[in-house]
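Purpose: get a first structural picture of the assembly so the mutagenesis plan has something to point at.
Setup: two entries, given in the order below. No constraints added.
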Amino acid sequence: MTALPLLLLIAGLGLIGWLTARGRAAGFDRGGAKRLHSLPGQHGWYVALWTVVPALLFLAVWSVASPGLITQRVLEQPAAAQLPAFDFERGALLAEARRVANDPAAKAYDPLAAELAPAMRAAQRHYGWMGTIAAILLAFAGGAFAWSRIGATFRARSRVENGVMILLLVASLIAILTTLGIFLSLLWESLRFFEQVPFWKFLFGTHWSPQVIDAHDPGASLGAVPLFWGTFFIGAVIAMIVAIPFGLMSAIYLTQYAAPGVRKWMKPILEMLAGVPTVVYGYFAALTVAPAVRDLAVMLGMPFASSESALAAGLVMGVMIIPFVSSMADDSIAAVPTAMRDGSLAMGATRSETIGKVLIPAALPGVVAGVLLAVSRAIGETMIVVMAASGAATITLNPFESATTVTKQIVDLLTGEAEFDSPKTLAAFALGLTLFVITLLLNIVALSVVKKYREAYE
Amino acid sequence: MNSARTPTDWNAPAMRRRIRKRYSAERRFKAFGLAAVVLSAAFLAFLLVTMAWNGARGFTRAEVALPIDFKALALAVDRASLSTPGADLALSGAELENAVKGAAVTAFGPGGDALISGHGWIKVRDAVKADPSLLDREAVIQVPASTKVDQGEDAAGVARLNGAGALSRHFNSDFLSQSNSTDPMAAGIWGALKGSLMTMLVTFLIAFPVGLFSAVYLEEYAPRNRWTDLIEVSINNLAAVPSIIFGLLGLAVFLGSWELWGHSFGPLMPRSAALVGGLTLALMIMPVIVIASRNAIKAVPPSIRDAAFAVGASRVQVVFHHVIPLAMPGILTGTIIGMARALGETAPLLLIGMRAFIVTPPGSFTDPATVLPVQIFLWSDEVSRGFIEKTSAAIIVLLAFLLAMNGLAIYLRNRFETRW
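Result (structure tokens, whole complex):
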């Protein structure tokens, strides 16, 4: 049975359990006691949880385990003896047999796969029915067990409440699991990469050209320094040259000068800049900004300027980051005690003098933290650089020349037609790990600065 | 004791000069601030206007009124098959495509078949299917013009069609009802939009309950200990992880192969499917929902909880009957904002393979699918000029969805949020 009807069936069984148990609990003999410990509905929930949860847990485990069992059963076929011993080809053949088994209309390219497909289909059906029947039996068994336990003196409420608490706890553990999952999967693939390419060669090599990889020395063309430089140059230099003055000045204007009506309207409008999807920015950068930047470069006397310049991507990225800088600056300026501002104004300082000499120095840690967060956002930004920056890895200080970034290379490496184990694919995970670690460090530093600063004024 | 200082003479020329200088510095500073705000807003306006300008034409297309004499053609079609599902096959088997090209040559002279889109015959096919009696007479059918005519690149062709009075511009309903195509005249966004909606459904079904439950646990149940701190730190860090990292996670976990106890198995899920995309995006926006929900739950005053406990409610009853309903507007606002972020996201979906060329809209959650932002990305790479308009038009549709979602979030916040 396919997944959806089975899930609906189990949910239906749970509902039946809930209704019948509630009905039964409503008629419990109170035995002289004024009240029962638990409401009928809570007895109902007790039975429903016992019906649904074990069956679902079983299905979750089964859906992970059954592909392995199916493969094993297919491998026991006599025809499977002809399968190549090499893991990769073997996997590809089995995958093809699976595809043909799932879709009778599909054609197999390999006769062996076509031969294995019926066995695959039979095994799938066999284990599919096995899982379905086991899940339904479990649902009935769980329901029956719970049904046998409920009674007038049974404390269903406490049980159900504990069950709910475990459910909530499991939900909140998913965040930890995701973090761990990210870290371990990146680390796992990166370690496999570093088996083939020495760690130092990757981190400090200055030549990056994954299109041509020497099979004997893949590290020679996988040196990531040009990518780190390009990422830093576009995300932390050019984008910040745009974002910091604009963000900071708009925050100052909107908090210190603007009339409340203007502030009420302009703030959401500026925040819309952060809500525009990055693919739209990327398209805009590639279509409108990049040609304009190239024309400017030609005008400035660089006839061979790239139409995929670092400047175009950086400028647009800077605009995207404005709201982040602005809202962080806004928060930290608002956190400066009013007494400091009033004191300065009372001494006869103009507003701009107050802002420049009192508010900004006092808010500086918060502003710096905001800038760090903005940098971490900018270096992790993908679509703008994928669409507007170049793929050629060069180390340059000229913003009109092309530069590439870590994120752009990850996308380029993984959207090609390389197999999963090649150094090219694994390099993307090593780049991802680097990116993850750097953004994590930036965030930790920024958050601790904010925390410290907040304590200073509290 | 008398001070030796003389009071400041504010009218002395030096002092006046100084004050003038300070005041003009003040005005300059204020003007800089205003300029920053105005320029930022102007950039947004410029972006939107550029998209609207390029995209407005993308919703329309040039169409040619093509006269076809079906009677003279005498297509070998079994009339009875036209009402069956095999009609498409029967008509393409009857060389309808060539017949339409021939009709174009007859109507507009040699080279006339290059003036209509390569997909033009599909319109004719649909017209015949809708009204089989066409096969016995002469008819004029509106078919899309070729890209070059649509873009005005083929001036001679445009002049020829105008001379025949056959060229007109209409709203392009195919753009909203068809899927991707190599021909910009026939390309549409429905396949991508449907993929987006299915992906969003998966994302919502996972991220909303998980996010809400973790927020409830952290606010209402969690003891203050190291584990709780670890959960909080994880959530705050996940919120700042670049989206592309989630794509790598999805690629490695859902689509990679696993090794357990010496057995290698996997991938756990089909490539390019809405299910994988939805799961990946759900992990990405879950922290947003948790943080918003926690703030909303925190804002419910303790007196509500105390009152419920005082009349004998159990903990689950307090949380599920009182706290969550009161916090719901804030929770929903956060959820919608998170969903809007997921809807506009491209990078992680590129990595898990949702960039396939999808001609038929996905029928199930495990079918290969693409989403609207990825479709925009794919079209932006196309060389044909017709796709520039289509890309901008697709961007307009995407922005309209995002605007509607954010508008709904703002409405919910203003309408239902209670301040205690």
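Residues 181 and 187 of chain B are 5 Å apart (CA to CA).
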